[in-house]
Design brief:
Helices cover 38% and strands 19% of the residues. Helix 5 runs parallel beside helix 7, helix 5 packs across helix 9 and helix 7 crosses helix 9. 44% of the residues are buried. The chain has a 7-stranded parallel beta sheet with strand order 3-2-1-4-5-6-11, sandwiched between helices. Strands 7-10 form a two-stranded parallel sheet. The protein is built from 9 helices and 13 strands. By secondary structure, it is of the alpha/beta class.
């Protein structure tokens, strides 16, 4: 299968390109930063002439975005221009290049503010009044644009709402990377509340979930998240156990609990995909990555 990845130089993009290539797919990487590889396209996803630089393709995986909420808040106009206008431009280009499917990287944040005891499934009705940041708003708009593209003739439009992704990387850490690094470099760790929890998911599991979605038809939405809620306390304990050291752990406000729970039952049932990397294995990999970086 010939697959175009937008945002191919991103954290997820690099892992996905490696995964798809290993599976025998012909992969084209598109990024505003000059991509590596034989099939690379350095371009802005908003460029109206982008279609002229794209190959005929079977599928497009759209990862490119301004993906940090603080960056979207700092420049909302740019965030909507890149994340919404850019997505619309790519959808037109993909259809002109005969793509049968576009996979859109969305986020659990589209569910907006949620109660700690709530469960977010793909059938959860999204309340616009509960969406409090520009990043989530742009992702909702992208999902809607993909839905319309399918109604206009695109064979497959697959929305993947990512959980909180972690893995070996130098910057833009989630709580997992940040806490593991603190645990290895200090004897004290401070958090807001140890009970705060997310369905963290390793970047390689994200990549395998994306590949599992290839070939779908119609408009579909899947939560791509970890198998269980993982608390900040769980992360710290996994790091402490692996390091074999004592840690002084303090909570700034034990009552300030935040839980988001995007369940992955549908993707496991319909795509026969499940996360393979445990928290313990992911933490061990992070510790090795940080050690190697110090050499």
């Amino acid at each position: 299968m010939k697959v175009v990845i937008t945002g191919s130089q991103s954290f997820i993009g690099k892992v996905l390109e490696t995964t798809l290539t290993a599976q025998g797919h012909e992969v084209y990487g598109l990024d505003s930063v000059a991509p590596d590889g034989a099939h690379s396209i350095a371009a802005d996803i908003r460029d109206p002439l982008l279609v002229d630089r794209l190959p005929e393709m079977d599928a497009m995986v759209h990862l490119a975005a301004i993906s940090r909420e603080p960056d979207c808040a700092a420049d909302p106009r740019l965030a909507f221009d890149v994340n919404v206008t850019g997505t619309a431009n790519l959808l037109m280009a993909a259809r002109k290049r005969n793509a049968r499917q576009v996979i859109f990287a969305s986020s659990e944040w589209v569910y907006g503010d949620v109660a700690n005891d709530a469960v977010q499934s793909e059938d959860t009705v999204i309340d616009p009044a509960a969406v409090r940041n520009e990043y989530a708003a742009t992702k909702i708009a992208g999902e809607m644009a993909l839905n319309v593209a399918v109604r206009r003739g695109l064979e497959g439009g697959t929305v993947l709402r990512f959980g909180i992704v972690y893995g070996p990387r130098k910057a833009n850490w989630s709580a997992v990377e940040a806490l593991v690094n603190t645990a290895r470099t200090s004897d004290t760790v401070a958090v807001g509340s140890l009970a705060t929890a997310r369905r963290f998911i390793h970047v390689r599991d994200i990549a395998s979930g994306i590949t599992a979605a290839l070939g779908r038809r119609g408009f579909e939405i899947f939560n791509l998240a970890g198998d269980r809620l993982v608390t900040l306390g769980d992360v710290i304990e996994a790091a402490r156990s692996r390091l074999g050291k004592q840690l002084q752990v303090t909570e700034r406000d034990a009552s300030a609990i935040s839980i988001r729970n995007p369940v992955n039952d549908k993707v496991k049932r319909e795509l026969r995909w499940a996360p393979q990397i445990s928290l313990q294995d992911g933490v061990a990999e992070l510790l090795e990555y940080f050690r190697e970086g110090e050499k």
